[in-house]
Amino acid sequence: MNPAVPEASLTALVHLLAEQALMALGVPHPMMKDLPPANPAVARFYVDLLAVLQEKTAGHRTEEETREMEEVLYQLRMRILDLRPAADTPDSPKP
Fold it and tell me: Who has greater pLDDT, 38 or 9?
């Protein structure tokens, strides 16, 4: 196998989906020069895909895979929540 290509695994799939979510959140990726504008709806889609993967693989993951998946999902969900206050905050009252 080519050393530049990682081994196919659940962890690799989780990280691939996480990278897509991060790019959709506007986080720069070292392999790309230009990123499209942030798209939180697309980021949520990738997080939802990870949650489906988590649900469907329950009982079939190693402890390490489970910890990794939980950590990745937690971190992504926190980033998405960080976006909400700016979008959901009503205009401040005028004096």
Answer: 9
